[in-house]
Design brief:
By secondary structure, the chain is of the alpha/beta class. Among the domains are: 64 residues, 434 Repressor (Amino-terminal Domain) (Orthogonal Bundle); 130 residues, Orthogonal Bundle (Arc Repressor Mutant, subunit A); 61 residues, no CATH class. Strands 1, 2, 4, 5 and 6 form a five-stranded mixed β-sheet that branches. A two-stranded parallel ribbon has the order 3-7. A hairpin with a 6-residue loop joins β5 and β6. α2 packs across α3, α6 crosses α9 and α8 crosses α9. The radius of gyration is 24 Å and the shape is elongated.
Length: 377
């Protein structure tokens, strides 16, 4: 167990055995034996390793509860193996906390992700994607209205969603996580970058959903297909034609900004969408893109969209605090590195418990958490 965790943390830090040896003040030969579990490190050595790798010593003893399959990165450039390992490590930590939190509540609070029978996975042309996206929206009871929060919709369907720090060149990725989930042994995971604009986050999340729900026939580019799926899911053909009409000679940036704000899809994606549906011609689309480049909007569009925020994890966490189901140490561990506003919310939750419960020890246990502060123990 220690050896596997040590190797995991070392790779996530992007360190070779020799580099970690220098940083921790332990011989490379000893580290090699630790990782192969030929030798068990002493307590002092574990403390040095924990400090060098920025983890707690408890981490080396914790069982591995989740295995992440090799992820499918949506890359915009070359990404190093070090960055891949770090991202996988961060997501695995989040998933392990989530799996513990879900088990506190049991199967009644979990949803099993399934691709409905009405959504045929394989597509043989890009136009078929329109039907697949509409069928999924219909099955999820979304109608044709704009989607307020994409991350929450995905979470409601049993997908584990994380907004995380991603390496340069990665907008998002999707994968399968094997583990002892409450209702299954395998769950889909979607991650997208924290620093992306809100409209780009929404598009990236749905692009990765496309990877989970459709497969493409030979000769079709899967990335292009998932782009089409994301835009079709965000704004179905019926909604596009209602907003733009079935045929236009050209579009104005004024209306594109209004539609971006209404549907949370970028102006550029709207131009592509109108072109894909033959509402405008290719020449009109090229002219619009050229003008956007001239104005400097290809990289930074006007009209900001709120960033996405998965809410299920925090919801379960606050409910566990309110119900007195976790101790003060567990509350801090589950919170991880969240910001001060989450700590303030948890403080309010702890104070409310005194009004809800007669078990005074529960209130005292949680109140101590905030009197002592959120410091590593």
């Amino acid at each position: 167990m220690i050896g596997t965790r040590l190797q995991q943390a070392r790779r996530a830090a992007g360190l070779s055995l020799r580099e970690l040896a220098v940083k921790a003040g332990i011989s490379a030969m000893a580290l090699s034996k630790y990782e192969r579990e030929i030798m068990t490190p002493a307590a002092g050595s574990l403390e040095k390793l924990a400090h060098a790798l920025s983890v707690k010593t408890d981490f080396f003893y914790s069982p591995i509860k989740v295995a992440i399959e090799e992820p499918s990165f949506r890359m915009l450039g070359n990404v190093s193996q070090r960055d891949r390992e770090k991202l996988k490590f961060d997501i695995q930590e989040n998933l392990e906390r989530l799996i513990d939190l879900e088990h506190i509540f049991g199967v009644t609070r979990s949803t099993l992700f399934k691709v409905p029978a009405t959504v045929t996975r394989e597509i043989s042309s890009l136009n078929e994607i329109e039907v697949r996206a509409d069928a999924l929206r219909l099955h999820w009871n979304l109608g044709m209205a704009p989607i307020e929060n994409v991350a929450c919709i995905l979470e409601e369907q049993g997908i584990k969603v994380f907004i995380s720090e991603t390496p340069q060149g990665i907008d998002g990725f999707s994968c399968r996580a094997r583990g002892n989930w409450v209702n299954t042994r395998e769950a889909p995971v979607i991650v997208c970058g924290r620093d992306l604009s809100g409209d780009r986050q929404r598009f990236s999340l749905l692009h990765e959903l496309g990877h989970l729900v459709i497969t493409v026939a030979a000769g079709i580019d899967s990335e292009r297909a998932c782009h089409r799926f994301a835009s079709a899911f965000l704004v179905p053909r019926e909604a596009v034609e209602k907003e733009l009409g079935k045929k236009r000679s050209r579009l104005s940036f004024y209306e594109l900004r209004i539609l971006k704000k209404k549907y949370g899809m970028s102006m550029q994606a709207w131009i592509y969408r109108a072109s894909d549906l033959a509402i405008i011609g290719k020449t009109s689309a090229q002219e619009l893109f050229a003008e956007m480049s001239r104005r400097g909007w290809r990289k930074s569009e006007p009209c900001d969209i709120d960033r996405e925020e998965p809410r299920r994890y925090k919801l379960l966490l606050f409910q566990a605090v309110m119900e007195g189901l976790i101790t003060k140490r567990q509350a801090f561990e589950f919170l991880g590195t969240s910001g001060a506003h989450e700590q303030h919310d948890l403080e309010q939750a702890a104070s409310l418990i005194s009004d809800e419960y007669e078990k005074e020890w529960v209130y005292e246990e949680l109140t101590d958490l905030f009197q002592e502060g959120f410091s590593d123990e």
